[in-house]
Amino acid sequence: QVQLVESGGGVVQPGGSLRLSCAASGFTFSSSGMHWARQAPGKGLEWVAFLQYDERNKFYADSVRGRFTISRDTSKNTLFLQMNSLRPEDTAVYYCVKDNPVLEVWGQGTLVTVSS
Amino acid sequence: EIVMTQSPATLSVSPGERATLSCRASQTVRTNLAWYQQKPGQAPRLLIYKASTRATGIPARFSGSGSGTEFTLTISSLQFEDFAVYYCQHNNNWPWTFGQGTKVEIK
Questions:
Q1: Nearest 5 degrees, angle CA B39-CA B40-CA B42?
Q2: Which of A61, A102, A108 sits opposite B91 (nearest CB)?
Q3: Which helix (H) or strand (E) holds B11?
Q4: Is the CB of residue B2 less than 8 Å away from at least one CB of chain A?
């Protein structure tokens, strides 16, 4: 079955960087678009970024554009989210999500805390 | 960006009763609308896509309807496992956006 396992979360100071990873299995990763979404503590869901299966298109939420970069390593079935210039409002659980053609399957998430 | 507005914020329903949740888009999203269920401490789960198509494994008591800017999620007879928060989300164009959620609680 489809499995998505996020890692790389933790505590980082404002202005710092963090790279999240998502290990995918149970489906043909190279043929699937992938997303990141997030949820601040006690708040609702926010879509963050999308990467097309062939990497020809990437889209970002306005709140992260220019600071976050989505990428993938197809040889390792892994999705990444490079987060730079982090702000306290980026504190959230970050979810890796398989596209088909909406947010079909979600990982369990990894918590990122931006605090001094 | 398209703003998604859900109502009500909280819905109190008795088990076995019908629940009707609403979602409104600030501009047309055609039928590019999905619904998700989230239980405490869990990741969201896809229920409905294309406004009315149930995702794999979703019980028939969940149904979606609507197009354009007005959408509805109906749970025909609430089971205990259905008490959760429900989100609508459009995928009509980028950026995708979610509604703020409707919490369905036990009355």
A1: 70
A2: A102
A3: strand B10-13
A4: no
